[in-house]
Amino acid sequence: MDRPDPAPDQARDRGRGARALVAHESMFGNTRLVADAVAHGLERAGVSTDVVDVAEAGAVGPTVPDYDVLVVGAPTHAFSPSRASSRAQAIEQGAPLDHEERGMREWLAEVPEPPPGAHHAATFDTRVTTVRHLPGSAAVKAARILRRHHYLVEDAPRSFYVEDLQGPLVAGEVDRAEEWGAELGAAQVARGRSPRA
After folding, report:
1. What are phi and psi of 78, to 5 degrees?
2. DSSP-assigned letters across all residues of the chain
3. CA 131/CA 151 separation, integer angstroms
4. Which positions ≥6 away from 117 have C-beta within 8 Å?
5. What is the largest CA-CA distance in the chain?
6. Least confident interval from 33-37, 104-108, 168-172
7. What residue stretch is flagged as signal peptide (predicted)?
């Protein structure tokens, strides 16, 4: 399907504020708490924000390029985003049954490339604090995937820490996530919307 002529499209873009999507995978609820905090920070900065759980996001993928900012977050399993096998292990330890089939890795594989123009993205993960100095993370891998999809990932991937596999988050991490979201939102508001071809 052909895109509308540039002029009407750009006029429509100028008529609304920036929009962000925060997509997350959360096995025990910790990554969801971080995602909600990031979204709150984005909203504080004036960016209209939606939050979605990728385990329930079957129809969201095709609409992702409609957002100006995409933020994705997932728990780090074995130094990368989860796989079906690691999610099965998490379920054995008490995670919800409906999270086994679909995680961030699968969701990102379905995210379409954005149309021409500036589409920004940022990534975060949650990790057990005892492995904070080990290499590899879900956020770093997600950033690489998004760059392959032609998103602009300018902010360094962020990690937020949990005390143990099931949590809770380390004290202060929710506040830190909200401040990061506010920084992302302020950056988007400052650069404004880039005209799309």
Report:
1. 55, 45
2. -PPPPHHHHHHHHHTS--EEEEEE--SSSHHHHHHHHHHHHHHHTT-EEEEEEGGG-TTTGGGGGGSSEEEEEEE-BTTBS--HHHHHHHHHTT--GGGSS--HHHHHHHPPPPPSS--EEEEEEEEEGGGTTSS--HHHHHHHHHHHTT-EE-SPPEEEEESSTT--BPTTHHHHHHHHHHHHHHHHHHH-PPPP-
3. 29
4. 194, 195, 196, 197
5. 54
6. 104-108
7. none
Q: What is the pLDDT of residues 27-39, one digit of tens each?
A: 889 999 999 999 9
Q: For the full predicted model, state whether its pTM sits above 0.85.
A: no
State mean pLDDT over 168-190: 97
